[in-house]
Design goal:
Chain lengths: 111, 149
């Protein structure tokens, strides 16, 4: 299994509503003082579009220039962060189904 | 002599989270001597166990890049690589995460490139195709085995 089997998968809620596609996976380390050995999944970044997602504007506020940031955040205004604990089922290369009541929050942190 | 993973010098990167595609995919991998090793073409995911899936290794080479590229070009890339590979069941180049010393705009390894094969746990590391091409193709070119006169 590779990351490519997850990127681009459709993300649907437990009642079948499509939220978008997986554009990235947030990984967490054992802690800032720990060396990298394995990186467990922490959350999925989900958006209806993938254009420009590799610039990271839809998930970080501190990144400029402002014109690009405004443009790409407008494209990804519906980008969402879904904790991996809210994932019910993952069919590699196809679909990620969320649990009922999974916490779906905006990918861009509050200002 | 091969080191155990615990004897590879490592340090904390000081960060608690990484976005995989943004921070790891397509990044350059640099060895402990500062030399370029490869680009990260995909990441190995371990889904065994009860916890969440985990990234366990960096993958590199046409076998990792082809499926990401997709379509005819991706399939052609993998088929060509498989046809030219010396092994019956070739696998993409693999660098275990425990060999990473630091992650910034590039991924820095704790070991030199020449040691990757011996640390690859029986795999050919990242140089399988290059070793084959050097011995079977390049090495047979007249004059290839000595410095220019």
């Amino acid at each position: 299994m590779t990351l490519n089997d997850l990127l681009g998968c459709d993300v649907v809620t437990h009642d079948g509503r499509k939220l978008g596609s997986v554009i990235d996976v947030r990984l967490k380390t054992a802690g800032p003082a720990e060396p990298v050995q394995v990186l467990p999944f922490d959350a999925l970044l989900v958006s209806r579009r993938s254009t420009g997602s590799l610039f990271g504007y839809e998930r970080r506020r501190e990144q400029g220039p402002a014109l690009f940031a405004h443009f790409f955040r407008a494209i990804h205004r519906e980008a969402r962060l879904v904790p991996w604990s809210g994932v019910d089922q993952w069919t590699p290369g196809q679909t990620v189904t969320l649990k009922a009541g999974a916490a779906v929050t905006p990918a861009l942190p509050e200002a | 002599m091969s080191d155990s993973p615990d004897r590879v010098p490592r340090k904390a990167t000081g960060e608690v989270s990484y976005d995989a595609a943004l921070r790891l995919l397509d990044r350059q991998v640099i060895d402990s001597d500062g030399a370029f090793v490869c680009n990260v073409d995909d990441l190995e995911v371990d889904v065994s166990g009860t916890g969440p899936p985990r990234i366990t290794a960096l993958l590199t080479g046409p076998a990792a890049l082809g499926p990401r590229t997709g379509g005819f070009i991706g399939r052609w890339m993998v088929a060509t690589w498989r046809r030219l590979a010396p092994d019956q069941d070739p696998r993409p180049g693999r660098i275990d995460l425990h060999l990473i010393a630091d992650i910034d705009s590039a991924i820095h390894l704790a070991v030199p490139r020449r040691r990757l094969a011996e640390l690859a746990d029986g795999d050919k590391g990242i140089d399988g195709f290059e070793q084959w091409a050097r011995s079977v193709v390049i090495g047979r070119i007249p004059g290839a085995r000595h410095d220019p006169e």
